[in-house]
Amino acid sequence: MTETTSGPARGSRAKGGKGSKGLRIERVHTTPGVHPYDEVTWEYRDVVMTNWRDGSINFEQRGVEFPAFWSVNAANIVTSKYFRGAVGTPQRENSLRQLIDRVVKTYRAAGEENGYFASPADAEIFEHELAYAVLHQIFSFNSPVWFNVGTTQPQQVSACFILSVDDSMESILDWYKEEGMIFKGGSGAGLNLSRIRSSKELLSSGGNASGPVSFMRGADASAGTIKSGGATRRAAKMVVLDVDHPDVEAFIETKVKEEEKIRALRDAGFDMDLGGDDITSVQYQNANNSVRVTDEFMKAVESGSKFALRGRMTGEVVDEVDAKSLFRKMAEAAHVCADPGIQYDDTINHWHTSPESGRITASNPCSEYMHLDNSSCNLASLNLMKFLQDDDEGNQSFDAARFAKVVELVITAMDISICFADFPTEKIGETTRAFRQLGIGYANLGALLMATGHAYDSDGGRALAGSITSLMTGVSYRRSAELASVVAPFDGYARNADAHNRVMRQHSDANAAAKRADDLDTPVWAAATEAWQDVLRLGKKNGFRNAQASVLAPTGTIGLMMDCDTTGVEPDLALVKFKKLVGGGSMQIVNNTVPKALKRLGYQAEQVEAIVEYIAEHGNVVNAPGLRPEHYDVFDCAMGERSISPMGHVRMMAAAQPFLSGAISKTVNMPASSTVEDVEEIYLQGWKLGTKALAVYVENSKVGQPLSAKRKEEKKAEAEPEKVIEYRPVRQRLPKGRPGITTSFTVGGAEGYMTANSYPDDGLGEVFLKMSKQGSTLAGMMDAFSIAVSVGLQYGVPLETYVSKFTNMRFEPAGMTDDPDVRMAQSIVDYIFRRLALDFLPFETRSALGIHSAGERQRHLETGSYEPSEEELDVEGLAQSAPKAETVKEAKEKAREEAKAEGVSETQAPAPAPGGAHNSTELMEMQLGLNADAPLCFSCGTKMRRAGSCYLCEGCGSTSGCS
């Protein structure tokens, strides 16, 4: 623990100091008399970033200086995103040293000016330790710090803002203006619209009010026109409405209706992708929506009782609705378009440290920051893999003592930043300086769990995550209490002292009650227990410097800066990663965490090499040589052959939530086969398990994003008449005699017949559907639909494309079927293509689409795997489709030579990255035959991936969120 000591008077109380004490800073990583920069090897690189769609150069800066151990991707992102000054001018930063010095020296100067340090020597140690931690990718501040600190522009350090709006036109117009200024600065904002009276209430003039949904339209249009920070990405925002607001149903349905519009316009040929030319015609697309529910409402859902919707001005009951029906509408909307998310109001305010100053009503766009209206939070995240250590005998441990020291250092720096920070509005500045909200968090949890041999969805994994989170927050509040003795508690503390200390006891009690699992988490729990005891003791004596200390943010761009394999609290995306090479080009490597995990699980070096080589070829661990099936779940990822169950994500959030001041930015991924009932269960369990907020995303539920690239290429081709060569698909008709299957079916009481005919060498070639009487409208439409699908199949459209597009389509008749393999269908079309998938697609393809037979589902219940046994596999067919051994061997040898030059271990079995892949997301799609429903990056055109509730581009570091 850092000590406090008496010292010479420094400044006045207005500067935040009592004038008699300062912090003694200990060295953790640095050496006296040696600057951290002098302990690493530096090299010069050229950073050239292109848009892969048209080959144009997005960014170019040559001769930039970075440590030799920094990856190409991290150096590229820091150079293009964070270096300040016009490119090509002497003022342009060209070294990581300059960037770190610009920020760290500003923090040191502000700390000295405001009385944080006991002596100039302590200030120097602080500067060196902070520089070392950034240089070695141990932690990173959020992006606004790197953008703004130490420059001539406003010193904005916060990424997250919460606004407020009242029921007056003046306040609503202020909302539009304040939001716009925040977007202009490159950040995001959230607010609750529940104070605005509903469309079912009267104005003082006697007419009906417009309602919040109407005003959302104007704010959405404003956000769509303002590009964040002058960059290419759009603004990020969160809109919240209370569940008892009379317009809550209209709020829930806003995005559902717009999603239908998107699909209709897309099918008509318009460019409706995120960032597309025609997407601006669609409303409400620039915000995440969330409904704020109460315990009263959730209990009414469980009991099936009525729930009152209340007027905003009088509080009187305007309408009564069936709670279960309203909850169902929320789940249906989220199932279709991922909005609205859900926020649990009573849980959030139960952990509120400053309730006497106002309730928590909203969150930032990614839902991790939750505190008072008109406030902000600056973030920083630690790289957890930097604290995993191996001893000489190969035993692993988490370095809790060093982790605590780094947390103390970072919290001190974050609090110092509030002393000099600028804010977008005067009200936000006043609230933030009065309550000094901080948001320390971490990244690389998924990698840490895998490396230590823990399944993400396991008691051991949750225990380790909980212990680290508890230690982080406990040490943060301990440091906050120490800072209070040096530079005074936050201004709002005296009024909220009882509540603040009550919340500290809640955290401490949760820490004491948490389950200990194994030798890795138990020492961390012990360190956390000690920290919380200090918090209770010091907090009662000194008060606290900060009303809030910790959150779990998406860690998008800064996660890439730290070379993290996983973001925030997320699991790994896939086992094989896409790696850029210094000399240009790319390769695929198996995650560095996989060999560590296998070693932890007790596998010998030869076994590790064989398993890693298998993963490199197949992208998953199923049937890897020598790998025991009980260890498969350690290597489960967010997507792929063995993806983590939705409840696995919720349980991990619940394990960390009691030890966080704020909340967790995370989307619960759900397979395409998920039902509305599944979404309801996730929302219900999220409440019961004590999470503060949840959002779900059902695979393939939104309009596919990558279509715009193809459409733009087609437009470009039309504009270039000199290219006269045109390739057209050729129709392959079926022979006169063809094998076929006729199936009778019933869906929701409606009967029909389907005949599916194949080519002699296998492969579906045509489909005939018969329903209703000949000459009826339905029969005619079925005939037309059959012809369209059949012609498409004969022109080479893959059956899996039809299956992915038409399954989960919802319309009547729907319901129970008489097919044991497909017990429920959302429509006739949904049933037909599920049946065709079962009859004609290989297991791997339809399993990736979430389609399994009754026998496979039974096998999953019994063994935990849908995979057919060896007796059931078509070994001969698989052998015919396998790649030639010589080709694979040659590719591997070539890749190993490149890996050796890059310093990558040969046991990782690298291979050249496929030509169509440009990052890990696209590589995973190609290997596993999946579609990650994510937008294309505005800057470089590559496929983005989820990071918390936002999207992140691995190629250039752009994000769709606020952090």
From TrEMBL:
Pfam family, one: Ribonuc_red_lgC
Cofactors: adenosylcob(III)alamin
Gene3D superfamilies associated with the record: 3.20.70.20
Keywords: Cobalamin, Cobalt, Disulfide bond, DNA synthesis, Nucleotide-binding, Oxidoreductase
CDD domains, per database record: RNR_II_dimer (cd02888)
Region (Disordered): 1-24, 855-919
Ranges of biased composition (kind: Low complexity): 1-11
InterPro entries found in the cross-reference section: RdRp_reductase_class-2, RNR_2_N, RNR_lg_C, RNR_NrdJ/NrdZ, TSCPD_dom
Reactions catalysed, as given in the entry: a 2'-deoxyribonucleoside 5'-diphosphate + [thioredoxin]-disulfide + H2O = a ribonucleoside 5'-diphosphate + [thioredoxin]-dithiol
Enzyme Commission number, as recorded: 1.17.4.1
Domain TSCPD: 738-838
Keyword Disulfide bond carried by entry: yes
Domain Ribonucleotide reductase class II vitamin B12-dependent N-terminal: residue ranges: 48-137
Domain of life: Bacteria
Domain Ribonucleotide reductase large subunit C-terminal stretches: 158-697
Compositional bias per record (Basic and acidic residues), positions renumbered to this chain: 886-903
Function, as annotated: Catalyzes the reduction of ribonucleotides to deoxyribonucleotides. May function to provide a pool of deoxyribonucleotide precursors for DNA repair during oxygen limitation and/or for immediate growth after restoration of oxygen.
Protein family: Belongs to the ribonucleoside diphosphate reductase class-2 family.
Protein name: Vitamin B12-dependent ribonucleotide reductase
The species this protein was found in: Streptomyces daqingensis
Gene it is expressed from: nrdJ
